[in-house]
Amino acid sequence: MLKTLGITLSLLALLALVAAIAMLCHGFVARAQMKRYKARRSDKPDNSTA
Amino acid sequence: MQLNLKARDWHNWISVILLIPMLIVGLSTLFLAHKKELGLDKLDLTPYVGWLPGYGAAPAPGGHTETRTALPLADGAHLIGTQGGLFRVADGRAEAIRELGGVNVRDIAAAPFGIVVAAKNGVWLETRQGWRKALDSDAWNANAMPDGSVVVAVKEGGLLASRDGEAWEALPGIRPALAALSSGELVRERVTLGKLMIDLHTGKAFFGKSLEWIWIYLLGAVWVFLGFTGLWLWWKSQIKRRDAARGKVAAEAARA
Q1: Interface touch B241/A44, C-beta < 8 Å
Q2: For residue B200, what are the contacts with CB-CB under 8 A and spacing of at least 6?
Q3: Quick check: ipTM above 0.85?
């Protein structure tokens, strides 16, 4: 019974770790996208002074 | 590239870089607090962890052969107990005993009914059919007695004696005699600075050995909590900043 609990908890911990890695990767992807959007804006010619 | 890191940036980036090791340590700490109750030592994962760099695919020759005990045999050979198994050494050649491969062997005793080995995973007995586990308990040592019996000291059961390797009984009177010792007869445990550091680290200094799991559990849980909440905050901020940047690009496109 306790052995089964140990295995279940270990698998849950592993799942939590995988979720953390996925979140980390997703965060970095979002960061890269943000930089791309910012770069797109700064590439545009500034018409306000024209 | 301009590098202007403030304290908050240092905090954020060191946390992000070390997040996974932090979570591994925190989660494994929670399991260590209940290692015995959950029977984690009984789950053999040897075939599945070879990919981890610290374990390697194959054991290094001589890597786990630190000698713990030895027994000379009648044929001139020696049984050698090591941290990583039991070996029969004869004519300069060592042969591993398969059944005790990788097991921490602590003591060997020769009895009339066979050879008894005290090992971390139990008490083993050599019979004509080979080696078999006689007791499933962490054993510290084994001693052959003049009356032909063998006495083993096991972690949970104390001193157990057997005359045939089959039936094991507690030596009468030993535990009550030790339990009856008065505090004046017991010498206080010596606490060195090194031991104090270990006991402060494990929580034994505050809770005692039996309740140190509270300390371990608390610290492990805090580590996991801070790791996950930090990750959540960082992830949310990245998503928010990306969406804001995307919104500005979309607004500019709409204006154009």
Answers
A1: no
A2: none
A3: no
